[in-house]
């Protein structure tokens, strides 16, 4: 008895013809009828494709089988021997001697397997028979993982079903093996997150690693709390959170009136045709001032001003030129950048945020560029 296994396969030639037919008959039809006929015609484009067949032949008998469009001429050339074995010739290719349950793989990856050998006793006139199973080559994309098949669409490598999204020996494709310090994440080999090792190019908060560089996520301005999360120029990173420094009552070195007017009042402008000396007026009980005068206006102590583009400040009585970096100071407002630390004016820095690089190969050139700012 002959057994066959079928699956549905799209006949491309028939499918194209059906689409052309639908185009012609669709003229004048309403949309519902067009959709209805379209479904019927597409379904009619699918044909049965046999993927394996099982049959019984006697010694010397031959027969042709069609598997998924490929023709296989099978001839039983020998049945016998002390261990009951059989030999086939398939499309001119001669198999080895096969016992029951043994299989032979053809050059095109089709295979033939012996199911049962039925030898007649001596003196009987009936011929010896063999039951076999002929299977066509693996078909990639048929959702079947055949022996020795390698097909990403079927998640099949060497005939074994695998999860290519997480398999470290076959990550994303058959044979793509991840390194010992890598894991397979969604079909891509990536450094292992959580191994306390900061690998090249790795982004892993568990390892305090961003772009392959060890960082402190609790205070790093470029990676505050997580990789590549940058705090703006008027914020500090505290315990992994960007906290704005505007409003802390102190005019920090990277702030001015345009960024944070609350902490840094806009400098008082002194007319160009007037000098600081002419701004002084005689102090009386009526116009007593605890700051500096501009005309008849009393400006509070600590106020910054501009005199012909020269930065000045009010010391409580007079307008004084702002102090340069490393000069001795008492209050922040005395310094050019409004920052007096340990009684010395702080030097101005280029940027609060320094851009990091994940390329370890930058080496000396990366350091050189960051040093000179280009």
Q: What is the chain-wise order of helices and strands?
A: EHHEEEEEEEEEEEEEEEEEHEEEEEEEH
Helix tally?
4
Strand content: 25-35%
Round the Cα radius of gyration to an integer and report it. Answer: 43 Å
Q: Could you report the average pLDDT, rounded to the nearest whole number?
A: 77
Helix content: 10-25%
Count of discrete structural domains:
4
How would you characterize this protein structure?
With 374 residues, this protein is mostly beta strands. The chain folds into four domains: 3-135, no CATH class; 140-192, no CATH class; 203-244, no CATH class; 250-345, no CATH class. Helices cover 11% and strands 31% of the residues. It contains four helices and 25 strands. The chain has helices spanning 12-25, 31-43, 276-279, 363-372; strands at 3-10, 46-58, 62-67, 70-80, 85-90, 93-94, 103-105, 111-118, 129-135, 156-157, 160-161, 182-185, 188-191, 209-210, 213-214, 235-238, 241-244, 268-270, 291-294, 297-300, 304-307, 310-314, 319-321, 340-341, 344-345. The strands form nine sheets. It has a five-stranded antiparallel β-sheet with strand order 1-2-9-8-7. Strands 3-4-5-6 form a four-stranded antiparallel β-sheet, with no helix packed on it. A four-stranded mixed β-sheet has the order 18-21-22-23, with no helix packed on it. Helix 1 (12-25) packs antiparallel against helix 2 (31-43). The longest helix is centred in the first third of the chain and has 14 residues, at 12-25. It is elongated, with a radius of gyration of 43 Å. The model is unreliable at 272-281 and 350-374 (pLDDT under 50).
